[in-house]
Amino acid sequence: MNETASANTTPGTAPVPGPEQKHNTPIHNRNYSQAIKQSPEFMSFQVDFAVCLKELRGYFHTIIAENFKSPDFLLEKTNSLLRPGQTTIDFFDMLHNLRSVDDSIYVHSLNVALIARMIGKWLKLNAEDLETLTIAGLLHDIGKSLIPDDLLNKQGRLTDEEYDLLCQHAKLGYDLLKPLPLDSRIKKAALMHHERCDGSGYPEKSTTDDIDDFAHIIAIADVYDAMTAARTYRAPLSPFQVIAEFEKDGLQKYKPKYILTFWNILLPRTRTIMYCSATDVPQTSFC
Ligand SMILES: [Fe+2]
């Protein structure tokens, strides 16, 4: 993700600053967001992201049809989105500017896989664990593909019954993955990514030590992505607001080792991570 300053400039558009420049230069958020969106790197990322989504959608259907195949090809495509030197633009800036594209299960799953992989890199996981963690992110919400679309897309508050049904996606996903020749941590991430350290999660109300490490990491990526997505009832939260939310009870709900790592990496970036939702909601400036 690091190249020369000249590679950041697209004719006819505002220049996209490199990572070092960004943190020191006040830039109007909207101009910056537009510059990213008009850059060849972002357009290329968007195309690669769409290809990945198509593959992921097909892979979910393959598993549901009990026609298992190795997720290696999917992993390769996912990893290529984070390949060093792929782009000069910060990964999180890319992700946030993709927000207007779609917010399906597949977009969310791919986002969670990429964010979890970033967290795994910061934790210095070995290459094999990074691959497994990425697949865990891709498949963590596969159970949602067994939940009726009208419930998944319902606007407004869910009834208690609807909420209970939605919560079943964790167990449904686990049941789908359980018989497959996949690392057990991938299956546990599907089952446990809504568990919380203080026992306030679901489906088992497990506490810290009973929750698998990969599920702890996927939980943070999952919540971060959900909060920074637009919802029918609220605008997307900025990364800065997400961190403020995490600060309220993050150390009770998430494993301190992982949430503190995530904060430490994300905090310096909140000055420049931009938003551009489908409704072009008011931007919050951290510059
Ligand atoms: Fe989930």
Name the structural class.
mainly alpha
User: How many angstroms does the end-to-end distance come to?
Assistant: 21 Å
Q: What fraction strand?
A: under 5%
- What's the main sheet like? none
* Radius of gyration from CA coordinates: 19 Å
Question: Roughly how much helix do the residues carry, as a percent range?
Answer: 40-55%
Number of strands: 0
* Residue-averaged pLDDT: 79
Order of helices and strands: HHHHHHHHHHHHHH
The small-molecule ligands in this entry are: fe (ii) ion
How many helices? 14
Ranges where pLDDT stays below 50 over 5 or more residues in a row are 1-27, 274-287
- Overall geometry: globular
Question: Can you walk through the features of this model?
Answer:
The chain is mainly alpha-helical and 287 residues long. The protein contains 14 helices and no strands. The protein has helices at residues 19-22, 29-37, 40-64, 72-80, 91-97, 105-122, 127-139, 149-152, 160-167, 169-177, 184-192, 213-227, 239-253, 256-266. The model is unreliable at 1-27 and 274-287 (pLDDT under 50). The structure holds fe (ii) ion (FE2). Fe (ii) ion (FE2) binds next to loops. Fe (ii) ion binds next to loops.
